[in-house]
Amino acid sequence: QGQLVESGGGLVLAGGTARLSCTASGRRSLLNNMRWYRQAPGKQRDLVASITGGGRTTYSDSVKGRFTISRDNTATTGYLQMNSLKLEDTAVYYCNAEVWDRGQWVEYWGKGTLVTVSS
After folding, report:
1. Is 97 left (phi over 0), alpha (psi -120 to 50) or beta?
2. What is the Cα–Cα distance from 27 to 58, expressed in whole angstroms?
3. What confidence tier does 55 reach under pLDDT thresholds 50, 70, 90?
4. What 8-state DSSP symbol labels residue 84?
5. CB 108 within 8 Å of CB 97
6. N or C: which end of the chain has fewer CB within 10 A?
């Protein structure tokens, strides 16, 4: 873990928005298939959203219509736009992606960023 870096977490009011970012640690590398997971206290890590290299996206039912996963035009930064946040969205969010690393795709994880939604 730790080859990807997430940012954008913090304290957000219910109904508010936040945007998480994910990049390769210390370098500008291509990101292929990318996924965002989250883990709430005392719960398992769950898949929230995914995007393929071709741009196909999927979402968990709990976030569908509220969250949007994307990549920038250079495909070196991924995002998770979170709208209409709910208390139950509070969790540590992890980025997971295939990174172009020394001539091959290697799957890496980030260390996570905490999103706290308060009332």
Report:
1. beta
2. 27
3. very high
4. S
5. yes
6. C
Per-residue model confidence (pLDDT) at position 27: 77
d(CA 4, CA 17): 23
Per residue in 13-51, pLDDT (tens digit) is 999 999 999 998 877 888 999 999 999 999 999 999 999
pLDDT above 60 (res 2): no
Cβ neighbors of 75 (< 8 A, separation 6 or more) are: 30, 31, 32
For CA atoms 105, 73, 7, 43, give the dihedral sign.
negative
Cβ–Cβ under 8 Å, residues 33 and 52:
yes
Contact 99, 30 (CB under 8 A): yes
Provide the CA 3 distance to its chain's centre, in angstroms: 14
**Percent of the chain residues past pLDDT 90, beyond the cut:** 84
Positive or negative, the CA dihedral 64, 47, 39, 77 is negative
